[in-house]
Amino acid sequence: MSEELHEEVTSVNAIYGEETLVKLSDEPALYALSLPAQPSISLRIEFPPNYPDAPPSILGTQHIGDNVAKGDGTYLVELVREVLAEIYMPGAPCIYDLIEESDQRLQSLGLDQSSKDEEQQTAQANGQETFSTHDEHDSSDGLQPLDDLSDPPPWTLSEAITEKKSVFIARCAPVSSINQAKTYLAHLLSTDKKVAKATHNITAWRIRGDNGVQYQDCDDDGETAAGGRLLHLLELMGFWNGMVVVTRWYGGVQLGPDRFRIVNQTARDAVVKAGLAPEVGREGGRKKKGKR
Description:
- Helix 2 (72-87) crosses helix 3 and helix 8 (226-236) packs across helix 9 (258-274).
- The strands form two sheets. Strands 5, 6, 7, 8, 9 and 10 form a six-stranded antiparallel beta sheet that branches. The chain has a four-stranded antiparallel beta sheet with strand order 1-2-3-4.
- The protein is globular.
- The longest helix is centred in the C-terminal third of the chain and has 17 residues, at 258-274.
- With 292 residues, the protein is an alpha+beta fold.
- The protein has helices at 3-16, 72-87, 95-108, 113-125, 133-136, 178-191, 193-196, 226-236, 258-274, and strands at residues 21-25, 29-35, 38-47, 57-64, 156-157, 161-163, 166-174, 200-208, 214-219, 242-249.
- The chain has two domains: 3-113, Ubiquitin Conjugating Enzyme; 146-274, Impact, N-terminal domain (Ribosomal Protein S5, domain 2).
């Protein structure tokens, strides 16, 4: 296995869980791929020796659970093959994008088995008793109830960066109030299991309120000093009325000061892609001021 493929497998399993990519053989490089949205079905995926210069191949199903409907395995194979053909670019690792896009399509088709299983387990744990998140927020915190979010927060994601087995991803969204920022963060942590299980979710936001009142805050989430550095970056970028969450899955090797560089790098990528930095163009460079 190439070092590049080894790092990609390590990163993917750090994000989604150790059972996401399971090695079946070295030569050829065969793996069993399990999608978070369809954990009852695993697919056989083969990586050519010159991957990522050449694409992997989805060979078929590796395992199908007892409760899977007839034909679902074949359908999943075809869906993932279609996604792979669309997202693969020569020279670029593609498994993270393959998983994310495949899961999104399964969710849009109502075929996200993981969320159904989780809802069923929650109901059983509560003796079939259901409750509303609205009740949880009816106290004095003033948060927008999660049930009122008909759509997920409009996150813009950065490219994932892997450094010594640690994985960093930033997401950015426009917000107009502190309560909205807190609700977006709560929604993210309650609906995205891999983000909720991450080692750190470093957060910062800057908001201009009525009458020119300005609000800004940050949270290290255990990554000491990272929140303040992230907030300082947003100040330098002229970032307002938005929030950034940088997620890190720790890979077991300490990065030292390099972790701050990567936090800022992914955050900057997300902010630029979201178009929320007036001092920076979408290509990443500072805008040139015209002559007066």
